[in-house]
Design brief:
The chain is α+β, with helices and mostly antiparallel strands and 465 residues long. The protein has a domain of 166 residues: Uridine Diphospho-n-acetylenolpyruvylglucosamine Reductase, domain 3 (2-Layer Sandwich), CATH 3.30.465. It has 16 helices and 18 strands. β3 and β4 form a beta hairpin. The chain is globular. The structure holds flavin-adenine dinucleotide.
């Protein structure tokens, strides 16, 4: 892969600067990234941090080898803009434009290609990682493979990925969508399992698959097929709202670009809470601000000033509990999980995304090449899972702990061989956490790559804060 001389020099300067920055942070000062955007839902920031300027570019795209060399803080918005002109896309493109490649690899992105391509870390061929020792280590399937295997779900606590080489996949210009309705969670789970196993539905190819649950008897599985021409094109970046179209039509056509970003314009459906879906507000709201990162900043502001909490208390509740979670359950347990969820939590809509570990010789660090294991987020390589995403508030009754619902979800997941992502709040006790997220392996990796504990510990970072 050829990287232009200017680009290579600029990259090396940025790498040297971040390495220097780490060595100059006073001993004991907390190490965290200082970057313009984040999609974490733990608002525990503060001043300072490690500047990572100049590490947010695509270094090169190799259309022949179908790979890209990408700096760790590059957003998927920029990554997709660099690959689509070559007729290529990353194997998994998380839905929110400002999610970065490094963030998706260490924090587990997921999307509608995950039923065939697994998760973003499974298409990383190599990475340069600034570890807690201040060294920059290259990791690949045949070079320090334990580090590559340990990156997913490490959330920057073993090191920061400064450059990654990833695989790309060919695309066609348009996506034909089918929104297939199911009346029950059982039928929906069966359909997701069948599409994952056969990559077809009703005899037609499926390239993309996700689902939306509006209520216990209204589920949709959305199936996308890449095509070379389209009879018409819809646009959900203006007055139209993508998630509502799922209920309103059986089929649709989008450009591949608009398909990949279909959920960002309204942050799935979460822009609703900010009034952006009201026709009058929507007309007045500048289109360049209809983006997930803008809404997230507004939510961060609300958390700081406590407006939602105050409103809930005025209406008699003990407060509201933010429930911003993505969880994974084996596909056969999906009906059971949804029944619990409708009964006790009651948030809607809910996003579904089938997921299966990728099977390929190229898919990353492995004990055996075609069945890699990712010890900090262990999944059964032979199982199909469904990611269930729900992002809203629930009212608390008097006497309920501030994390009442989130803790209940964790407990129920434990009974269903389920996991949850750690980008938001987590309350697991240490022993449960260690059992779920490879605690023993993590401690070995931490001792090897950050022996002085310069970077935060995973449990502290994701649970206790
Ligand atoms: C409402 C909501 C819905 C979501 N839905 C989805 C979804 O559907 N699909 C999906 O894919 N994801 C989803 N996410 C989760 C998102 O992918 C993760 O939060 C991801 O880690 C965010 O990446 P980021 O680039 O914004 O990283 P940041 O938020 O900046 O950082 C995330 C963590 O990764 C670390 N980190 C960042 N960059 C690097 C690096 N280069 N090397 C090492 N460590 C690094 C940081 O230290 C931090 O701990 C959702 C999040 C929210 C809030």
């Amino acid at each position: 892969m050829t990287v232009g001389v200017d680009v290579a020099v600029a990259h090396q300067e940025a790498v040297d600067a971040v390495r220097r920055g780490l060595s100059e942070l006073p001993p004991g000062a907390p190490v965290r990234l200082r970057k313009k955007t984040s999609n974490l839902f733990r608002f525990r920031g503060g001043e300072g941090g490690l500047a990572v300027d100049g590490l947010d570019r695509v270094l090169s795209v190799d259309p022949e080898a179908r790979t890209a060399d990408v700096q760790g803080m590059t957003t998927y918005e920029d990554l997709v803009a660099a690959t689509l002109p070559h007729g290529l896309m990353p194997l998994v493109v998380p839905q929110l434009k400002t999610i970065t490649l490094g963030g998706a690899v260490v924090g587990l992105g997921i999307e509608s290609t995950s039923f065939r391509n697994g998760l973003p870390h499974e298409s990383v061929l190599e990475a340069d990682v600034l570890t807690g020792t201040g060294e920059i280590l290259r990791t690949a399937r045949d070079e320090l493979p334990d580090l590559l295997a340990g990156l997913p779900n490490s959330y920057g606590t073993l090191g920061y990925a400064l450059r990654l080489r990833i695989e790309l996949a060919p695309v066609r210009p348009f996506v034909r969508l089918r929104h297939v309705r199911f009346g029950s969670a059982e039928e929906t789970a069966k359909a997701l399992a069948e599409v994952t196993a056969t990559r077809e539905w009703a005899g037609e190819r499926v390239d993309f698959c996700d689902g939306t649950v509006f209520s216990a008897d209204e589920h949709y599985v959305t199936l996308g097929e890449m095509v070379d021409s389209a009879p018409y094109l819809s646009d959900y970046t203006g007055q139209g709202i993508y998630y509502r179209s799922i209920q309103e039509r059986d089929s649709d056509h989008l450009t591949i670009h608009d398909y990949l970003w279909r959920w960002d314009t309204d942050w799935f459906w979460c822009s609703r809470a900010l009034g952006v879906q009201h026709p009058v507000v929507r007309r007045l709201w500048p289109s360049r601000y209809r983006r997930s990162d803008v809404y997230r900043r507004l939510v961060a502001l609300d958390r700081r000033v406590g407006l939602s909490q105050a409103i809930a208390r005025r209406s008699g509740a003990a407060g509201v509990e933010p429930i911003i979670q993505d969880v994974e359950v084996p596909v056969e347990r999906l009906p059971e999980f949804l029944a619990f969820f409708h009964d006790e939590i009651g948030i809607s809509p809910v996003w579904l995304c089938p997921l299966r570990q990728r099977r390929t010789e190229r898919s990353g660090a492995a004990q055996t090449p075609d069945r890699p294991r990712w010890p900090l987020y262990p999944l059964d390589p032979d199982a199909t899972y469904v990611n269930v995403g729900f992002w809203s508030d629930a009212e608390l009754a008097p006497g309920q702990a501030p994390d009442h619902h989130n803790r209940r979800i964790e407990q129920v997941l434990l009974t269903m061989d389920g996991h949850k992502s750690l980008y938001s709040t987590a309350s697991y006790p240490r022993d449960e956490f260690d059992a779920l997220y490879g605690g023993a392996t993590y401690r070995e990796l931490k001792a090897r790559y950050d022996p002085d504990g310069r970077l935060p510990d995973l449990y502290t970072k994701t649970v206790t804060g």
